[in-house]
């Protein structure tokens, strides 16, 4: 049994248990079991669960596709908006990656940011983690942007910003990310507050 399948199975079991039982304590326990940070997240618990379900299903589809499974492709979902990123050798594989996940239940929109290039190495991945942490620290220190409203993902020096923020916060978050050493590009995939 693959790791991704095991993880998917655990989340499905947790979700079934969450909805089968009643009470606040069960809700809090179930939310913690699926890794939800509802206290600081502007999304509802239901939306957070939907996003995690979308991520798991879409990432499983990519990992199980015989033509895509050897490429480093990932999906991150925020407010049912999906960021698809990674590297593939040609346009056909880039398009295939989007097509493979397109019918995943709950996806509102796909931001296909898959790059046509060789796969990034471990040193680049390490640098990307450093960039992400620096952007998050600078967002946390800013008075205009609420850091918990912005999800930061970095891939090969490109910073992707997702979240539910107003235009002033979005512009400030982009400005902050652009000024972090090592950032080559900032792509925003924000939703406006409802």
UniProtKB/TrEMBL annotation:
TM stretches of this protein: none
Protein name: Osmotically-inducible protein OsmY
PANTHER family: BON DOMAIN-CONTAINING PROTEIN (PTHR34606), OUTER MEMBRANE LIPOPROTEIN DOLP (PTHR34606:SF4)
Signal peptide: 1-28
BON domain mapped to chain residues: 50-118, 127-194
Keywords (A to Z) from UniProt: Signal
InterPro entries: BON_dom, Lipoprotein_DolP, Transpt-assoc_nodulatn_dom_bac
Domain of life: Bacteria
């Amino acid at each position: 049994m693959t790791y991704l399948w095991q993880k998917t199975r655990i989340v499905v079991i947790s979700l079934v248990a969450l909805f089968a039982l009643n009470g606040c304590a069960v809700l809090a326990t179930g939310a913690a079991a699926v890794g939800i940070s509802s206290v600081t997240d502007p999304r509802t618990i239901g939306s957070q669960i939907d996003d995690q379900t979308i991520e798991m299903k879409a990432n499983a589809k990519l990992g199980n596709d015989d033509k895509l499974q050897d490429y480093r492709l990932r999906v991150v979902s925020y407010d049912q908006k999906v960021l698809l990123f990674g590297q593939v050798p040609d346009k056909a594989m880039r398009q295939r990656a989007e097509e493979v996940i397109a019918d995943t239940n709950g996806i509102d929109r796909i931001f296909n940011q898959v790059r046509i290039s060789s796969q990034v190495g471990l040193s680049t991945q390490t640098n990307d983690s450093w960039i992400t942490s620096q952007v998050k620290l600078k967002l946390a220190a800013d008075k205009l942007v609420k850091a918990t409203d912005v999800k930061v993902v970095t891939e090969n020096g490109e910073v992707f910003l997702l979240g539910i923020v107003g235009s002033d916060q979005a512009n400030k978050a982009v400005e902050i990310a652009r000024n972090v050493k090592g950032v080559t590009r900032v792509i925003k995939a924000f939703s406006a507050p409802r």
